[in-house]
Amino acid sequence: MVGLTSLFTKNPPMAPKLNRRRALFVLTKIDEILTWERRTEAERDTRFVELGRYLCEVRAGQYWRIEKLASFDDFLERRFLESRRKAYYLMSIHEHLPPEARRRLKEVGWTKGVELAKIARRDRQDFDCATWLHKAREMPKDQFKHEVEKELTGRDTEPAEIVYFKLYKSQIPVIEQAIETAALMLGTDKSRGYCLEMICADFLAGANLENGNSQVLLQSISRFFKFLPGEERKIFLDHACASAS
Q1: Rounded CA gap, 89 and 49, in Å?
Q2: Quick check: 196 and 179 in contact, CB under 8 A?
Q3: Are residues 147 and 89 in the same domain?
Q4: Shared domain check, 129 and 29
Q5: How many Cβ atoms sit within 10 Å of the Cβ of residue 105?
Q6: Which of 29, 99, 120, 163 would give a disulfide with 127, using CB separation of 3.0 to 4.6 Å?
Q7: What is the pLDDT of residues 175-218, one digit of tens each?
Q8: DSSP secondary-structure letter at 227?
Q9: CA distances (Å), 150 to each of 29, 155, 185, 216, in order?
């Protein structure tokens, strides 16, 4: 395949023959869906499935050439101003979900459809459509996403969320040093997120040690306890029981 072995080729693949009439129809439908508003959630999800199908056709037929664009990414950049990720999600739904699942997507929503597509892409012909559609209908979005992640990774991990906040350049060295120090104490296999959590837990424990919120102190101690190795957990509990008696 071109691109996997070399950036250059003497015989590049021929571009598909451009069906101008069909291309104009599909591009018009895409713009119609993107500007479409004030519909119910179920109707919106149905249209998004349709949008994913049209986007796949634009890519395969190179309909973006009608607009004198250089690539499919240029086409997406023009229409998905905030993020092209959503476009690729919708295309994944069309490419990987079987027709039955796509028809019933309005029952679960397109965001759950993205998660269903991940399972379908892995299982292919063995995809248990009925079971996963049932789970998608019954579970809240975050719980369903967690269920899919557990299925794909084999690990029952906590739901995760990426948090962004602004730092001044002068603050970064202090924060980096604190996280590195925490990693040395907790073990370098721990993520930076866990290290930051322990730093915050330590702060909260100190701030609430005297005349503070006992619930916050208890929560902080509980989080520290989770990171102790098995033998040290037993020692901690023995000391705690001895102190309480």
Answers
A1: 10
A2: yes
A3: yes
A4: yes
A5: 23
A6: 120
A7: 888 888 887 777 655 677 878 888 887 777 666 555 556 665 56
A8: T
A9: 37, 5, 29, 30
